[in-house]
Amino acid sequence: MQLQIETYQNRPTRAEVSLGRLRNNMEIVRSLVGKDVKIMAMVKSNAYGHGIRTVSEEFLKSGAHYLGVAYLEEAVYLRRSGITAPILVCGAINTDQIEDFIKYDIEITSSSHDKSSAISSVAARMGATAKVHLKIDTGMERIGVHWYNAERFIERAIALPNIELRGVFSHLAKAESDRQFTNEQIKRFENIAGFMARRNILPPLVHLSNSAAIIGAPQSHFTMVRPGIMLYGYDPFGYDPLREFGGRRILPAMSLKTKVSYFKVVPAGTGISYNHTYTTKGQTRIVTLPVGYGDGYSRLLSNRGEVAVRGKTHPVVGAVCMDQIMVDIGPEGTAYNGDDVLLFGEMNGSAIPLESLCEKIGTITYEFLSCISLRVPRIYID
Questions:
Q1: What is the SS3 assignment for 168?
Q2: Helix H or strand E encompassing 151
Q3: Taking a C-beta distance cutoff of 8 angstroms, is the pair 353, 305 a contact?
Q4: Which of 114, 282, 342, 381 is 20 to 30 Å apart from 182, CA to CA?
Q5: Catalytic residue among 38, 44, 131, 135
Q6: Distance in angstroms (rounded) separating the CA atoms of residues 97 and 122
Q7: CA 44, CA 42: separation in Å to the nearest integer?
């Protein structure tokens, strides 16, 4: 049996995840779509860093009909964890994986005729029926058959044995930034759905909307939507603490926290961390925190990040190390070993929006969240 290091739940650095906030965000999605529209909760990349098993269970209890992942191994893990709800792997498949898709009752994305044929062949050999969603490229240029070639692709897939066509879908490229192009993609997809309806081959699941389209393009909801980032508490259109949906706000579910592990007084002119990219201007107090880029706290936050200690915000100084960072709390600052420290999120009246850290380093919340490593324990709070 292969051994691996297990996450230590009492580690000072931890990601606290509010299940109540996840439910709140799911309820907002539910309020924005029609009562007959199904919800596929996107839980890829370890549920955007929040912990795929617990979060999937919570979303299913809160009204999700489907789970969406990127890779087969994510879906297999959920099956082995006891989750029986429908799961779609939205990414491109390797044909060597088809047998496991069928074995674990996982729905398959077919993005070409060759892949449809391979799915049919393996299912026939197993004496089974594969559940398939056809991927149409309406402008993302990632995977899928171009919309202008889709009719032939669809007809050939329908004719293959041992395939149950469960859905047809596409993906929006600029739903949060370009309404005109989004409308063009919706129109292209509508034309494909119309073709299938006229041929009486339209599957029950017709899906296009991501979080931005759920909010901003209700005409794209069709029969199922695929919320992602909004379920975890982030507005795809950008940080706006005043935006409400029927009197409710999308609420970030995660707060990343740690504890002070060391305190020292440092004289003026002292270089801090690797390569001394920060030098103290006067005598000051430096605290060390047991978190670093090995945990997903980006090295780009060197001399840019900020944390909250005892209700006050202080700068991260020097290079972020793999496992530790240093913080300058000033000559009169107060901190003790074991004090809680907020890295992002909310704690005891302090708040550091994740969006503010992302803006400093030119990234997005999706990336920051999904980079929080597995050695950081997820602590779930109801």
A1: strand
A2: helix 150-159
A3: no
A4: 114
A5: 44
A6: 10
A7: 6
Buried b (16+ CB within 10 A) or exposed e, 24-51: bbbebbeebbeeebbbbbbbbbbbbbbb
Annotated catalytic residue within 8, 148, 274, 336? 274
Element (H, E) at 356: helix 354-361
Known active-site residue 234: no
* Residue 242 pLDDT class (50, 70, 90 cuts): confident
**Token pair belonging to 362:** 């030119």
* CATH H-level, domain 254-352: superfamily: Lyase, Ornithine Decarboxylase; Chain A, domain 1 (2.40.37.10)
List, for residues 293-321, the tens digit of each pLDDT value: 999 999 999 999 999 999 999 999 999 99
- The H or E element containing residue 199 is none
- In the chain, where the domains are located: 19-232, 254-352
Q: Cα separation of 47 and 221, whole Å?
A: 22
Q: How far apart are CA 86 and CA 194, in angstroms?
A: 26
CATH number 1.20.1250.20 is the correct assignment for the domain at 19-232: no
Model pLDDT for residues 222-232, shown as the tens digit of each residue: 999 999 999 99
Contacts of 318 (CB under 8 A, 6+ apart): 271, 272, 273, 274, 276, 277, 278, 302, 303, 325, 326
Instruction: Provide the pLDDT for residue 1.
Output: 45
How far, in Å, CA of 264 to CA of 343, rounded? 20
Active site residue 274: yes
